Amino acid sequence: MIDFRYHLVSLISVFLALAVGIILGAGPLQNAIGDQLTDQVEALRVERTALRDSLTATEAELADLQAYALGAGAELVDGSLEDVNVAVVDVDGISETLELDVVNQLEAAGARVVAQSSMTESWDAVDDSVLRDTVADGQRGRLEDMVAEDATTSQVLGTVLGVALTEADEQTPGERSDRAVELYQLLTQVGLVDSRFAPSAPADAVLLLTAGAAEDDGAPGSESPEVDEDVDVPSTVVTLQSVAGTVVVAGPTAVDGDLLTELRATEEVVASTSTVSGIEQETMRMNVPLAIAAQAADEVGQYGFEEDAEAVPPVVRAPDGEDAAQESGGTTGDEASTGDTGTTGEDS
Predict the structure, then answer these.
(1) Fewer beta carbons within 10 Å, N or C terminal of the chain?
(2) Average pLDDT, the chain
(3) Percentage of the chain with pLDDT > 70?
């Protein structure tokens, strides 16, 4: 049996401890704890203010640097493509706003945008492989001076697109050849190319625009057609470069799985064709006309902020007018060069 006095002593101990805690908390410890908390709050407040001031200063500095870069860049870009005809081709659905920004940059550099087109989903969809093969096979004989006998469908279509956009009439270099007109009509009629506006003159350079990595928004019916693994986009680009003479591929900052990354991982492309990444930024869009001018002067490079790229292209002036096709290797009705993918032809 437990003695009642044991319970009494326990209760007294509990209340005594409680009383001591109250006395200490309200007395000597109160000021120390309060002061410590106040000091910590004040230190955090000062640190927050300092960080805010530092952020404001950094943003102002970045704004100044951006303004300087845009001002200096505009001086570099101005006249870099004076009187150069450029055909713009949307490869995989770049936004209209971004395409317009790039076109405006080209025009600010003095270029004449003579065509705006887009490759349709039929260009690489599995369901349209027969269509592509049929078009390519039908043009092999007509382009035998420009394509090798063992050229793939991707290479033949790259040649067809290059001729359609860049081939000039041999008698009137400022006008498109009959073959160029007919091939462009063929590409649009079979649904491989959509035309924003048809070429008004032979292009001295071709700019391919890519939207970057595809994003699945999860909406019903938003899935893109299955891509045919036999479609060799790098091969198409290399062939187009060999026909057109000056080709640049531009798109947003490169990420794994996008077209720019694929092209930059292909030796043939890196050796022959320039790419520009980061065009979602205004300063990086200035690289597009500079890259085209450099490519026309046989200065090939990969431009952007990625590890495998240079930040800024060399500043050169592209040859203007009729000289551009001759100096950059562009095609005329009786002259074409296809580099590694074909042979040099005589009269078409």
Answers:
(1) N
(2) 82
(3) 76
CB 338 within 8 A of CB 101: no
163: tokens are 């001729």
Report the pLDDT value the prediction gives residue 273, as an integer from 0 to 100: 96
Give the domain ranges of the chain: 1-77, 82-341
Token pair listed for 82: 């004076």
Could you give the CA distance from residue 319 to residue 322 in angstroms, rounded to a whole number?
8
3-class secondary structure per residue, 161-192: HHHHHHCECCCCCCCECHHHHHHHHHHHHCCC
Closest to 252 in 3D by CA, of 201, 305, 191:
305
Q: Whole-model pTM?
A: 0.74
Does the structure show a pLDDT above 80 at 323? no
For residues 187 and 135, what is the distance between their CA atoms, to the nearest angstrom? 9
What was the pLDDT predicted at 295?
95
Question: Measured between alpha carbons, how far is 298 from 317 in angstroms, rounded to an integer?
Answer: 12
b or e along 120-132 (b: 16 or more beta carbons within 10 Å of the residue's beta carbon)?
bebbbbeebeeeb
- HSE-CB at 26 with a 13 A cutoff on CA atoms is 6
Interstrand relation of 112-119 and 193-197 (parallel, antiparallel or unpaired): antiparallel
Tell me the C-alpha distance between 47 and 11, whole Å.
Answer: 49
Q: Edge to edge, what strands does the sheet with 193-197 contain?
A: 193-197, 112-119, 85-90, 205-209, 247-250, 274-276, 302-303
